[in-house]
Amino acid sequence: MPALPGGEGTRKAYAVSTGHTDGALWSLLQLSDQFFPTGGFAFSHGLEAYVAEGLVHDRLSCQAWICNIAWQSIGPCDLVYGAAAYRLAAADPPGLMALQRLDQLLAAVKMPRELRQESQHTGQAFLRAAMALAPAPLVQDLWAQVQSGATPGHHALVFGCVAQSRGITLESALLAYLYSVLAGLVAAALRLVPLGQSDGQRLLHDLGPLSHDLMATYGAQQPEDVWSATPALEIRSMQHERQYSRLFRS
Predict the structure, then answer these.
(1) pLDDT tens digits for 159-210?
(2) How confident is the model over 81-91, as pLDDT tens digits?
(3) Which of 68, 139, 80, 131 is nearest to 105 (CA)?
(4) Percentage helix, strand, coil, to 5, in the chain?
(5) Are 52 and 144 in contact (CB under 8 A)?
(6) Where are the domains of the chain?
(7) 144/138 Cα distance (integer angstroms)
């Protein structure tokens, strides 16, 4: 493999300046990019039902909807499980059985079928794609368990596990997870609300501080602290299952 210009010294300086080991920043960008094949474009996380009811109709109402979900579910639930999975992957030895228990608990928290399937399907697709990236032994073992049906493979959990195996720091992994999820919601809003490209970029920009606040509030919490309170989202998700015309799977 060709060396970076400047040799080993340049690589060490690069790692110090980015806060990552050599190559981890590239992995961070790759895993959080919308190009990474998770199938997330097919899901709206209930937004389609909100739009159909006229409850979300412009950038401001969309931002309020995303912020509510982030504070009431994504932060106190998915983010906590993602951080816990990262720590288990970093343990010696890595905790595969504990990861499976976390996966089952996360499935239990997601009561509406559509939201549970969204998390599971995007997680499985994410893990399948990660298998092409010289996966660590724990990632291979987790994929084998998902393939056998022993564990569902929810998105937050597999993201934390894979990110740790790529040498990405915990803080960066959590931020990348939040970016990929929130950017997916914004992408759905561009098609459903609808929003223009400029409004979409402004919305994504305004969600940046929210991500850091979520990390500061929930990043260090443990799985026993998890909670989620989104009754309106759960009702809309159940309504979406029987909606006459649908563009998205959730």
Answers:
(1) 999 999 999 999 999 999 999 999 999 988 998 998 899 999 999 999 999 9
(2) 999 999 999 99
(3) 80
(4) 70, 0, 30
(5) no
(6) 45-240
(7) 10
Q: What is the DSSP letter of 3?
A: P
- Give the list of residues 6+ apart from residue 160 with CB closer than 8 angstroms, or none: 81, 82, 83, 84, 85, 86, 89, 173, 174, 177
Cβ atoms of residues 63 and 206 within 8 Å: yes
**At residue 221, what is the residue type?**
Q
Dig out the tokens for 180 from the structure.
Answer: 């990929």
Per-residue exposure over 163-193, b if at least 16 CB sit within 10 Å of its own CB, e if not: bbbbbbbbebbbbbbbbbbbbbbbbbbbebb
By residue count, the chain amounts to 250
Q: Quick one: which H or E segment has residue 141?
A: helix 137-148
CB atoms within 10 A of CB 161: 29
CA distances from 23 to 8, 30, 39, 167, 171 (A): 13, 11, 25, 8, 17
Q: Are 234 and 68 in contact (CB under 8 A)?
A: no
DSSP assigned state of 38: -
Give pTM, 2 decimals.
Answer: 0.88
Which structure tokens are listed for 67?
A: 């912020």
CATH superfamily of 45-240: Urease accessory protein UreF (1.10.4190.10)
Cα distances (Å, whole numbers) of residue 153 to 11, 117, 127, 207, 246:
35, 10, 8, 27, 26
Cα separation of 49 and 55, whole Å? 9
